[in-house]
Design brief:
Blueprint: H1 3-13, E1 18-24, H2 30-39, E2 47-51, H3 62-73, H4 78-89, E3 97-101, H5 103-109, H6 111-121, E4 125-128, H7 140-145, E5 149-150, E6 152-154, H8 163-167, E7 174-177, H9 190-203, E8 208-211, H10 217-224, E9 229-232, H11 234-242, H12 246-265
Helix pairs in contact: 2-4, 2-12, 3-11, 4-6, 10-12, 11-12
């Protein structure tokens, strides 16, 4: 059983949603990013998404675009990102870790080599936003053959005709993008989220996690009452951008993570 399945099964038994946190690898530098990554589980993150820096993150809004720029300026690359996962795994063998990003760096690294190195480093899943199901043989199938979950994004425009195609071969969880637009955009109404979760549940037995636009503990708690997981990224990345020092960046992210975790954990009580 994968770490993701184990974690969601545990949380289901506890009748609570997962807090899924996103940060960009190497933002603002390797050492600070690694300190944040290592601190997230104790601060309440149930699942971690680690962004693979890329020069053209077209699905991301300004906050994460700037995080990519900072990381690349600090010479972060895919080799260092996988090394970061290995160092994280030295002290944590239970928290699921998902790499999120775009296909170009993986293609350049080499798919076969990447899948093998990601598996050996301790990666549990992949979210590759620019690879639709029609390209499953390019990465999805090799990843899953190696035991790495391939997580699909679904959107408000994924209708009932398209959803079976999008979800075919998905594993780990389903990431529902709650607003049409880029990361950090405005948030969806609760009615919309409730309807979306119900519709996705008709198509898949996988956990459904909601992201894009969730920034506060109160908002996270509200979504946690409806979905299996709450994804927060831009709000955490903003803490890094606004920090006056690397120590402040670490504490800023972990403090917000604790607040979000408290909201998610208390949501169904």
């Amino acid at each position: 059983m994968s770490r993701l399945q184990t974690r969601f099964d545990e949380l289901n038994q506890q009748n609570r949603a997962a807090l899924v946190t996103f940060v960009t690898a190497g933002d603002p530098d390797y050492a600070t990013s690694l300190a944040i990554l290592k601190g997230l589980p104790e601060a309440g993150a149930d699942v971690i998404e680690l962004g693979m820096p890329f020069t053209d993150p077209m699905a991301d809004g300004p906050a994460i675009q700037l995080a990519n720029i900072r990381a690349l300026a600090a010479r972060q690359n895919l080799t260092k990102t996988l090394q970061m996962v290995r160092e994280f795994r030295e002290g944590n063998q239970t928290t699921p870790l998902v790499l999120m990003g775009y296909f170009n760096p993986i293609h350049k690294y080499g798919v076969e080599r990447f899948v093998a190195d990601a598996r050996d480093a301790g990666v549990d899943g992949l979210i590759v936003v620019d690879l639709p199901p029609e390209h499953n043989p390019d990465l999805c199938h090799p990843a899953q053959a190696a035991g790495i979950d391939f997580i699909r994004l679904t959107t408000p425009t994924s209708d009932d005709k398209r959803l079976p195609t999008v979800l075919e071969g998905s594993s780990g969880f389903v990431y529902y993008v709650s607003v049409a637009g880029v990361t950090g955009a405005g948030s969806a109404t609760l009615e919309h989220i409730e309807q979306a979760v119900a519709r996705l549940k008709r198509h898949t037995a996988l956990p459904v996690c909601i992201g894009f636009g969730i920034r506060t503990p109160e908002h996270a708690a509200t979504v946690a009452r409806l979905a299996d997981g709450v994804v927060v990224g831009s709000a955490l990345v903003d803490r890094i951008a606004s920090a006056g020092s690397t120590d402040e960046a670490v504490e800023g992210v972990l403090d917000l993570c604790r607040e979000l975790s408290a909201g998610v954990r208390g949501a169904r009580q």
